[in-house]
Amino acid sequence: MFYSIIVPVFNRPNEVDELLASLINQTYKEFEVLIIEDGSEIPCHHIVSQYNNDLDIKYYQKKNSGPGNTRNYGAERSNGDYLIILDSDCILPRTYLETIESFLKKNPIDAFGGPDCAHSSFTPIQKAINYAMTSFFTTGGIRGGKKQMDKFYPRSFNMGIKKEVYLALGGFSKMRFGEDIDFSIRIFKGGYDCRYIAGAWVYHKRRTNLKRFFKQVHNSGIARINLYKRYPESLKLVHTLPALFTIFTCFFLIGALFYPWAILPLIIYSILVFVDSTLKNNSTHIGILSVAAAFIQLIGYGTGFILAWWRRCVLKKEEFAAFENSFYK
Fold this sequence. Notes:
It is a single chain. This protein has 329 residues and is an alpha/beta fold. The protein folds into two domains: 3-122 and 152-206, Spore Coat Polysaccharide Biosynthesis Protein SpsA, Chain A, CATH 3.90.550.10; 212-326, no CATH class. Helix content is 48%, strand content 13%. The strands form two sheets. A seven-stranded mixed beta sheet has the order 3-2-1-4-8-6-9. Helix 9 packs parallel to helix 12 (284-314) and helix 10 (241-256) crosses helix 12 (284-314). The chain crosses the membrane at residues 244-274, 286-310. Residues 4-136 form the Glycosyltransferase 2-like domain. Keywords: Membrane, Transferase, Transmembrane, Transmembrane helix. InterPro entries: Glyco_trans_2-like, Nucleotide-diphossugar_trans.
């Protein structure tokens, strides 16, 4: 089969360079690459041009409209049987496309997604953030995967779909955050077959510091309520866990002012995260950073969820997002 790899880009020329370098080394060669510059102030045309002789690559520039609309722009100009949606901060292992091709030959499905992991070149904080986003001790189980607590919904950093199905669904919505989950929900509601391909993993850099990470997960918490307002059946009990974690953390901290032992549950949780991350990353430094990343991940998501619940479900306000001017950052 022929694949179209669609990548929206905003001010990330160096990361595009790493992604394209990994695409050159793919063992399966039947694919094209569409790089869509979404109103970047720091364009990557000079990077893309270096790969014209090695890849079937197309480069487009457009006004900024967000990643969802930018992916739709690329899909309209693609030629593949399947569209593969990637973030610009991803690096692919050599057998990524070969694994997908082998799976689809045996399982002719409509859509799929895969996991992510940390590359050896990532900074310690990026590895800690990756741990926080994939660990069963945080919301890794909610996001789905091998040890999932909910069905697997492909994310836009690693998502594949038949082009005909993409067009039938109308592509991504205009949501600024949560647009990939919105799209995944519509895949299932449309009755299409969507699977998790464990071997189709990517290295995903995610955010480069904890402040940006908080903004990302806070917006994700808000997006969960926005999705609930669109699809009430999409909200599951597990999605409330970060909000409950946030509330209980506040209670434990306040209680510790009067009863020092009240902080014990947080200490136990921190030790569990530290030990698990240290063993997985073979680094006590990353283990310590993972504790901070785990609390930021859960509390950031939880506060966003609580804020959106109050504004949208109690005050009956319209859909909104925080940090909207920096949704790429």
